[in-house]
Design goal:
Rossmann fold, alpha/beta, 35% helix, four-stranded parallel β-sheet, 8 helices
Length: 275
Amino acid sequence: FTADAEADDNQILGQFSNIILSHPDFKDYDLVIHDRKESEGQLLKLSDFKSDLLDGMIYLTPSEDHHEFLEMASKDFPIILLGQLAGAEEKVPCIDINNRKMGKQAVEHLIGLGRRNILMLIPEKLQHINCIQDRLQGYRDALTENGIQITDKYICPVRCLKENVTAFFEDLRYLEEVDAIFCANDDLAAFCIAPLKAMGRRIPEDVALIGFSDALICQHTHPTLSSVRRAAKNQAHAAIDLLLKILNKETPYEPGFQEIETELVIRESTVASNL
């Protein structure tokens, strides 16, 4: 785990834990949080959970290198995956927004504003996570379908820290070409604002800026940030609803993908407040 990856996981864990505990039908169950640092030599085993006497599991933020939990899932030990992994929906129920579709919509919003030179920033330490790759593919889809050439130099992994984002823009030789930025998460988008302003680039007049997840920070930046709403509450409620139905024998335990509908939230960073 890196510091920024661990901070992201902790934020997600806290958010989803609070939502699950507030679910009105969860009162007959206890929530056990099993925090595990995945490593190459430490594979997940069913025995890791036997002492907790668990009825089922909601799995958050699995790494791309550890899929062994998929083999543990069964009707006797149901596992619901919050998120997506390649092939996971063939073995367990997966619940998530469609990151590829929403990434495409975010970029199409920028294209609809007349922007053509669209930079995509990806959090460097999270770039191999499936949802980030899906958002990148959505970026590619939008450009291709709108006849805009995909340019490798416009796809940039950046460490998700303020000083790293500032240094990235200071070293970016083609900043004057860029008229829009799509960030794969909101922290990156928020960190873009100060260096862009310092270099004389107005938001959104010169550079439109959009993030992903609609974190609370989006409402407190200047300008406020447009973003894709993650719909965490709906996602967590759907997961606990399904798990409880399975545990209560009201529905069978079956693999598949359940898409949580969400939306773009348009704020000042893509549409000036006086327009």
